[in-house]
Fold this protein.
Amino acid sequence: MSNGNEDLDHLIALMAKLPGLGPRSARRAVLHLIKKRSLVLLPLADAMHKVGSTVRECLNCGNVCTADICDICLSEKRRTGQICVVEDVADLWAMERSAVFHGRYHVLGGTLSALDAVGPDELRIPKLLDRITAEDITEVILALGATIDGQTTAHYIADQLPDVTVTSLAQGVPVGGELDYLDDGTITAALNARKAL
Amino acid sequence: MSNGNEDLDHLIALMAKLPGLGPRSARRAVLHLIKKRSLVLLPLADAMHKVGSTVRECLNCGNVCTADICDICLSEKRRTGQICVVEDVADLWAMERSAVFHGRYHVLGGTLSALDAVGPDELRIPKLLDRITAEDITEVILALGATIDGQTTAHYIADQLPDVTVTSLAQGVPVGGELDYLDDGTITAALNARKAL
């Protein structure tokens, strides 16, 4: 892949490392960036540099942020007493987009996994236990994935927790989902958790 | 789309403007970048800044480069006497990847188009005529797209050219192509241009 220019080749090679982009789409993206140099390329370079030099993990919850404590932990508008435990930052963002949870979060940074040798100390579980006491938490919502590892982690955490209410997300038919396309496990879960109309 | 952090939101919004990325894949890409801050994010920001502050069009051929004249025009290894005319820089890169053409290029910057009001002076056609005299060109290869606009442009250029050999890319069955999936026009062109084995 030579365009006869080192700087451009280097930029294309770096862009091709992004998830969702390969060499071909990286070339397209770079040509697009060059055409929109002042509108996109330079602002994007600046935004990346700014994020790259300031981004870190919130010391309290593990969210990514550009200060020691993230905006959600600092916000006085968030309801105290509730912590929503998620696997990673992408899950926290997904919860925030639904804008239905108004408490604070705790990002584990993964799930317990015997295969990958991830134990409780590799995750942010000790810090979660500290926070429950320090922040007067009354309810812990375990919003972990409905995978084997996610559910194992949820059970482990539920066992460790002191005297607080522990809940987890409901399982069932996704909104807009058609029964025909759902797996047996989801239908079983949805039937077992059926509600009176 | 709020992650509770302005800098991150800004970066995601800019990434989502890239071709091939939407809001969801931009978020994924940004999380990936944050995780690989020193390996990808900061080098990418630097590479973008470098390209953004130096990239321009080659004054001779219209290729993108980081100097006034591009490496291909400057290279002494390129065969003189041949110019390959392409629509845009992406086409030049595609030709270079096939590594089969060893002459120099001329990037038109588009095609003639009555609908979009693109006339000869909007393209780099006058400069092409200048170069044919100045660089002692004996063959002009018109490597334009097999579209209506591309072929109109090719005919227009062929009419303007002084006494040089004018060729265009062959049309036919693409390598790896199956007849079953080809359109009528391609099969007609391939049959008309059939070769003795």
About this structure: Chain A has two domains: 6-54, 77-168. Chain A has a mean pLDDT of 90.
